[in-house]
Amino acid sequence: MNEFIHPSVFFIICAVIVWFLPGKIARFIPPLAAILGIISVFSMKEGTYADVKYLTFILHMGRVDSLSMVFANVFAIQALIGFIYALHVEDRWQHMAALMYISGAFGCVFAGDYATLFIFWELMSISSTFLVWLRRNPVSSRAGYRYFLFHTIGGLFLLAGLLLRYKAVGNFTFEAIAPSSLQFFDYLILIGFCVNAAVLPLHAWLPDAYPEATITGAVFMSAFTTKTAVYVLARGFSGVEILGIMGTLMTLYGVFYATIENNARRILAYHIVSQVGYMVAGIGIGTAMTINGSCAHAYAHILYKGQLFMGAGALLYAAGTAHLSELGGLFRRLPWVFFLYMIGAVSISGFPLFSGFISKTITIAGVAESHHTWLALGLEIAAVGTFLSVGIKLPYFAFFSKPDVGIPLKKIPWNMYAAMGIAGFLCFLIGINPDLLYQLLPHELDYVPYTKWHVLQSMLILCFTGLGFYIMRKKLTPEAKRNADFDYLYRVIGKIVVAIARKPIEVIDNLWSEFYAKVGLRGMLKMAEITAWFDKAAIDGVVDGTASGVKRIGNSASNVQTGNLQNYLALAMIIGVLVFAAVWFV
Amino acid sequence: MLNITESHLKKAFFLILVVLVVLNFFETPHVPHFGLDKYPGFWAVFGCGVAIILAKVAKGAAHTFLGKDEDKYMENEKAMPIVDDSHHQEHH
Are B47 and A464 within 8 A, CB to CB? Predict the structure, then answer.
């Protein structure tokens, strides 16, 4: 027991501390939580810890094995990088949301059963919604609302699945399921996981909400939500063939949209869909090599995607916009942002010497070796698209393309550069020293990334992608437009539902008013006269004071009901935690 | 001080491309997975070809049916009954 301290504990305690401190001081607390988290994760030994009796169940909060360790390891490191990046933020609510969000992610990774998983799963969903809302503008309010609705639906699928499963099997055990024996409830759980993994066509929340999140919030969100989902898929659903196909489609879908997007952070968001596609595909194929590939890629991806979001966030922070059509020629004024961004860009593209090269190729080679030739070809096409849009298009149109447009720039705080420096260093370190990562993987790995052919093949693909861009550079100029994705569908559906609902209600309302005016009113006035007399004469005499008492309660209740969903949700979370604590201790 | 111009960079880039293709004649995959990839130059054609096709197809889709005016795209949101602190208070 004393070898294992659940990392979530540090993050939750720090969230409470941050709550009581003024923002100027509170911002120094979160990195401490991350450092303690790193110490806790690096000193962990495999085993089962922290079984907590809750009501009649036992919650398994500490399943530490080779699979959970890979994810916990990179989660802890990325938490520290993210909080260094956010060190200048004085809004303590943002820090609290991020701390709770990360504690949820750790909780999911170490969860040994579905009940525990669900609790932390929902904690992540709620607290990450706040990372969107705390941008505090109307667009992010709406985006966060859609984000929350979608994750609630995903969470309900998971809940329905695990309850039906409990009824059928009699426990909440969360273990790998043989793909041939999947039951209806397993599919419900799978759908719940797929929502968070942004599997097509359930992905639209991601490119919809991430670009509207706070600058630092997007850095956290890029790391934890989808990768937690990848972890649970790898844990429960490896070898489910459909995931192999959907994963490959995700890689292609993501790069397709990224090629035409204008908002830098939305380009990166589509690349999360694309890169998570590699991991989902690897899990779907389900050989030891592709599972290794998925885990390695998740590890590398968290670091380089964080780096890219930090770079685009720095652009947004300095220039006030992330729209490529409004940027350009910033290289001379932001050279360091460019260089640090490019480390992330060459990593995601899989250039030799950087982390993507040693992780992505495992999955592709594994898929090809298991004779899924078409899927492997799809993954190679996506690799070209990745370098085209993140590696060349985004930096070219932000930093070069035209003479400096002269946007006034805000000074970027030192801590943002420091965080990007650390992440960049790690991308490079893993790239030149793959064994650092390979030794963490859950299965024995027989793969050598640095052969002459692998290096030459990668260089051929990437450099000639560069040639393709050079030929098409005029055509690829970003335009100030938004490209319809599945979220367009539910916006339109929402509009239609509102319109449909409005019509009948309007008709009924009109009829009722007419009826009321003609028939009801006269009778009612008479009735009112009588009851008023009765009330005054009889009741008030008996229970004097109750009326004013009720009024007072009503007033304080209406203070609680301010009508903002944000406040409701925060309140619901606080009440939830209190109820949870009360049941626990009583 | 070396004076590097755009045309120098361009020449260097094309030189790298040529060198890579030449190297490809000496180094080929031990186990070709796709058939055609046993021929030198396959991945060069693949990289360049996919980049061009992707750009053409994606941009084509954006220009014909995917691309929406940003404000119009957002307009669909406003019909939804969402409590929106800043906007609504201005109206009422």
Answer: yes
State mean pLDDT over A434-438: 92
Tokens of B18: 């040529």
Looking at this predicted complex, what is its ipTM?
0.81
For A524-538, b/e burial (b = at least 16 CB within 10 A) is eeeeeeeeeeeeeee
Distance (Å) of CA A169 to CA A174, A178, A184, A185, A490: 12, 15, 13, 10, 36
In a domain, B86, yes or no: no
Nearest-Cα distance to chain A for B48, in Å, is 5
**Over 70: is that where the pLDDT of A318 sits?**
yes
Residue A94 contacts residue A124 (beta carbons within 8 Å): no
Contact of A219 with A310, CB cutoff 8 Å: yes
Q: Which domain holds residue B41?
A: 13-27+37-67
CA distance B43 to chain A (A): 6
pTM: 0.84
Q: What is the average per-residue pLDDT within B65-83? A: 63
Strand pairing category for B67-69 and A481-483? antiparallel
Neighbours of A503 (CB within 10 A): 10
Per-residue HEC secondary structure of A371-437 comes to CCHHHHHHHHHHHHHHHHHHHHHHHHHHHCCCCCCCCCCCCCCHHHHHHHHHHHHHHHHHHHCCHHH
Q: State the Rg of chain B over Cα.
A: 25
**Domain presence at residue B87:** no
* Contact yes or no for A465 and B48 at CB 8 A: yes
Task: Indicate the SS3 state at residue A440.
Answer: coil
Number of domains in chain B: 1
CB-closest option in A459, A467, A482 to B68: A482
User: Considering the domain boundaries, does residue B92 fall inside one?
Assistant: no
Q: Which amino acid is at A517?
A: A
Tell whether A402 is within 8 A of chain B (Cβ). Answer: no
Sketch the domain layout of chain A as residue ranges.
1-157+212-221, 238-483, 557-586
Task: Give the number of beta-carbon pairs within 8 Å between A and B.
Answer: 163
Give the best residue of A146, A253, A260, A475 to mutate against chain B (max B CB count within 10 A).
Answer: A260
Quick one: average pLDDT of A495-520? 77
Q: How far is B21 from chain A (nearest CA, A)?
A: 7
Q: For B52, which residue in chain A has the nearest alpha carbon? A: A468
Q: What is the pLDDT of residues B9-55, one digit of tens each?
A: 889 999 999 999 889 888 877 777 777 777 888 899 999 999 999 99
Whether B89 has a pLDDT exceeding 60, the answer reads no
Determine, yes or no, domain membership for B85.
no
Tens of pLDDT, residues A23-48: 889 999 999 999 999 999 999 888 88
Alpha-carbon span A222 to A232, nearest angstrom: 17
Q: Tell me whether residues B50 and A468 touch, CB distance under 8 A.
A: yes
Q: What residues of chain B, 6 to 25, have a C-beta less than 8 Å from chain A?
A: 13, 16-17, 20-21, 23-24
Q: Inter-chain contact A495–B76, Cβ cutoff 8 Å?
A: yes
The pLDDT tens digits of the residues spanning A91-136 come to 999 999 999 999 999 999 999 999 999 999 999 999 999 999 998 8
Q: Which residues of A touch B46 (CB under 8 A)?
A: 380, 384, 461, 464
